[in-house]
Amino acid sequence: MRIAGIDYGTVRIGIATADPEVGIALLFGTYARRNERLDAEYFRQLAAEERIGKFVVGLPVHLSGNESEKSRQARAFGAWLQRITETPVEYFDERFTTAEAEQLLLDAGLTKKRRKDRLDQLAAQIMLSAYLESGAQGQQAPDSID
Q1: Is the Cβ–Cβ distance between 94 and 58 less than 8 Å?
Q2: Of 12, 33, 69, 94, whose CB neighbour count within 10 A is largest?
Q3: In which domain, by residue range, is 104 found?
Q4: pTM, whole model, 2 decimals?
């Protein structure tokens, strides 16, 4: 069973994968959203071909730990993802992952276009790495992250 980390976005979704026994999250790709039917087809295929046994969706929360509108959207996406793939979904705090990914890409000297192409999947990798380091303990129920 593999795990897929999801950096949710309304336009692009960053994806990283990991074999929990190895404990290393790898970049997988960035999916450009199209429409619900094509999105469902993509994620069903991803779950089947990559043998995904669990999705971990990053929750963007405020510094206080309170959830935002983006958190609610990520939770709704996670519920949809679980329903269409029939694969369990957990949620994990993704505070600072995009900022960390942006800084890493800047430090690497990539062009703006190359940074944009890699940002979401790198944020997913950072979040999934933190999830694995935490002992793979996310949140299954749609409660607040507090």
Answers
A1: yes
A2: 94
A3: 2-133
A4: 0.83
